[in-house]
Amino acid sequence: MASIKDVAGLAGVAVGTVSRVINHSGAVKPETRRKVEEAIKRLNYIPNEIARNFKMQKSKMVALLLPTISHPFFSELAYYIEDELDREGYKLMLCNSGSKPEKELYYLDMLQQNKVAGIVGITYNDIDSSVSTDIPIVSIDRHFSKRIICVTSDNYEGGRLALRELVRAGAKKPAFIGTVIPVSSEIMKRKSGFVQEAKAMGVDYVVYEKPDPIIDEDKYYNEFFMRHDDVDGVFATNDMFAAQYIERASRRGISVPGDVKVIGYDGIQSHAYFHPVLSTIRQPVEEMARTAVKLLLGQIGGESFHQDTYCLPVMYRQGETT
Amino acid sequence: MASIKDVAGLAGVAVGTVSRVINHSGAVKPETRRKVEEAIKRLNYIPNEIARNFKMQKSKMVALLLPTISHPFFSELAYYIEDELDREGYKLMLCNSGSKPEKELYYLDMLQQNKVAGIVGITYNDIDSSVSTDIPIVSIDRHFSKRIICVTSDNYEGGRLALRELVRAGAKKPAFIGTVIPVSSEIMKRKSGFVQEAKAMGVDYVVYEKPDPIIDEDKYYNEFFMRHDDVDGVFATNDMFAAQYIERASRRGISVPGDVKVIGYDGIQSHAYFHPVLSTIRQPVEEMARTAVKLLLGQIGGESFHQDTYCLPVMYRQGETT
DNA sequence: CGACTATATTGAAACGTTTCCAATAGGGTG
DNA sequence: CACCCTATTGGAAACGTTTCAATATAGTCG
């Protein structure tokens, strides 16, 4: 593999000159540039990015740490994150934690060893305390500390919106169901928005949380249907969960939206052709992704931000379930 | 940031010794090891992986180059690939090409500059000619050359299976629809399997390919429904496309599986709770992913393989559309 | 024409590891 | 006691780049 030295040798110049040609830094005589470029071509020289990273003591690598890329919301997010990073000349490293705290820690450790330029995290742990370096981190949907900027959608408003739409669709007793990640999660606000709005409107409501991880799914659903057979509206914490609920309901002969109106959360695109098309609170996935990257790269570039949470607006999208 | 030198200084030994302690290479007296470990702890020393990569002239990074991670089949694949890589101490870099040839080339170039240890590719180009280094590559569903090992599912058998199942479900005139990536694609075999089996069984059939990229989707479907209104079975190149077809058909008052039986391809998990649950030819995603990684790491480790295509079995999965 | 300036180029140090060779210290053996 | 062998350690080179101070070259102006 040809190195910069070989190029310099063949072109009859010093390595520093070759470096300046490659990086367009400093002044180089056109004639010299030509010679160097000629040599580069002849030797089929490719700059060694590893050596560069080493010299610079930083890599243009950003890590995305999330539960699993196979969840459609995350994969959509990942797509836009990678796209935005690429525009800025950065690369993306993908880390599936499986939501396991110990795996999150393991990855964080590895990422620091690898001196990644920054991390976008969607984690279960409060990762602030477990990162010893001052590596920039942007978190999505989790608020940990001043240091870690959080990008989220307006979960509180999303919860309120869901409640209002369920009521508007005719629900007299709406229920909130789903997993509420306890640790610093913005997602909890979906519940509080829902609850607050119900109280404000004087509507009877139910909250039926799903343990995570769940031991006995059948029992969870059976109990819900038994205890709350008067529920006629359901707001689920995400689209997949909403679909799952509908599946269970229909097995019991409950029709959607006839007997029960259902609203999900996320607004996943890849489900567009499948039925029922969910009524859902759509998060601005693309905007969240690009915002997260912009904030991260800002931090990497040395900017500091006064704001520690960036909250983007959500939207109600009508489907076939309300 | 503390370096190996600082550790050596504090422990009163040479850097080489510290290196041997860290890597458990060579002999180190227990007493010395203790001193070094003590120093490492005191300084909160983290080995600089970049420097290591540099010295070794290789990184433990494998790239996954695919059209888009937001497609559920690819995201499922990516999940298992990352999982398998992590087990072996490798990291995954994610590259979305958007199926654009120029972007594929751009990424391949970048990956070579970054001296990634290997590449798993799902590409549109014949990438063989555009990779100048001898970096190991495993391709999924594309067969280019001896050099690039191809991991695929049994697309030919999948096509035959689809035809047989459509006929078994009562179809008299089944159609193959979908995109047929021309370049060295294993996916073409889905078509040939379908066609061959139809001929073998003496069944009347239709092939209606979808251009890629498609200009006018409405026109494509309209023409299909006009020209082939006697078609009563559809085999689509993938699940998403099958769902899309069903959507279009139902808008025209065609019922599935009443009027037309439909079989998709892939067997995407994240659609399990949505309807109609597709009858589909399921690819062994997990096995494909793990096989691809194993072969790639084998190559990285210097093994050479006599076989250039690894074909895994597919399975018919009954849903609600046949 | 000499002094200055602007432009081009050189050469070497430095980044943090690993690895190899030489050096040293013990420990056993004849 | 001399010798050899092994276990352990030290020291330095090397990996390929960037950067910076120093030097060289060529105009320009008075």
Automatic annotation (TrEMBL), chains A, B:
Q: Which Pfam families does this entry report, sorted A to Z? A: LacI, Peripla_BP_3
Query: HTH lacI-type domain location, by residue?
Result: 2-56
- Superkingdom of the source? Bacteria
Q: Which keywords belong to this entry?
A: DNA-binding, Repressor, Transcription, Transcription regulation
Which InterPro entries does its entry note?
Answer: HTH_LacI, LacI/GalR-like_sensor, Lambda_DNA-bd_dom_sf, Peripla_BP_I
Q: Which PANTHER family match?
A: LACI-RELATED TRANSCRIPTIONAL REPRESSOR (PTHR30146), RIBOSE OPERON REPRESSOR (PTHR30146:SF95)
Question: What is the protein named?
Answer: HTH-type transcriptional regulator DegA
